[in-house]
Amino acid sequence: MERSRTRWFCAKAAVCLLVLASGARAADANPAPASFDLRERADAPGVVIFAARGTGPFPMTVVLHGMCGDAARTCRHFADAVTENAHLICPRATARCAGGGASFPEQGVEDAVESAVTRAKSLLGEVDESHGRTLIGYSLGAFRALRIAQSAAGKYPRVMLIGAKIMPDQQKLEQSGVERLLLGAGNWDMMHDHMQREAARFYRAGFATRFLDLGPMGHALTSNFDESLPRALSWLRGAEPTAAEAEAPRAQPR
């Protein structure tokens, strides 16, 4: 058995969405999270793990990377913020790309992700699943994450989807136990307006949804994203709304 121990600034509000940004974070006094890279085996996919900092048990956040991406590279953008309160689990896709990297295939992703989570749990030891997991998908990973979220039977009550032309099904999300949905994209990402409209649609329908405006960035994850992430994760965990968020219904989306 594998085993080892080891901030929202609300610039604008709109009816059904919250535009988030943040200034520079204070220097983190905590050490960098311990990381582990479990390579692919014949019976299980590879997985990159960033252990939560501090004494546990901690919950888990699962991140699915984009097309022809790399789990370690993508998850470095999440590691600092996520590991303050959770273990970060980043399954490696298995469909190799000719130019490097890999993509999550159309079929079998749910089982592969669960297998990667099981490998991570065997290394981390005791984890806290009493309030479920957080699921995050970026680009193509957002499509795969949405499919999992809509059929995971309560495993992922918190979902964040970034930079993808997804069409969430509210009924399926509710039936699968999803409680909060955060959609995000940069201003220069072609998916920005679509995801903003989807967040608005869900908000009007009474679903706990926010839109994360990542500011002046395109489809790639940059430091803008890293700076916005802590407050986004706080909202996903159910933090109390700020005064600016409470005013959201009075404005109109652009």
Would you mind describing this structure in some detail?
A hairpin with an 8-residue loop joins strand 3 (35-38) and strand 4. The strands form 3 sheets. The protein has an 8-stranded mixed β-sheet with strand order 3-4-6-5-9-10-11-12, sandwiched between helices. Strands 1-2 form a two-stranded antiparallel sheet. With 254 residues, the protein is α/β, with parallel strands linked by helices. It has a single domain (26-206), classed as 3-Layer(aba) Sandwich (Rossmann fold), CATH 3.40.50. The protein has 7 helices and 12 strands. Helix 1 (71-82) packs across helix 6.
Rg over CA atoms: 17 Å
* Assigned CATH class: Alpha Beta
Report strand order across the widest sheet.
Answer: 3-4-6-5-9-10-11-12
Known CATH architecture? 3-Layer(aba) Sandwich
The total count of helices amounts to: 7
Binned, the helix content reads: 25-40%
Under CATH, the homologous superfamily reads Alpha/Beta hydrolase fold, catalytic domain
CATH topology: Rossmann fold
The fraction of residues in strands falls at 15-25%
Give the N-to-C terminal Cα separation. Answer: 53 Å
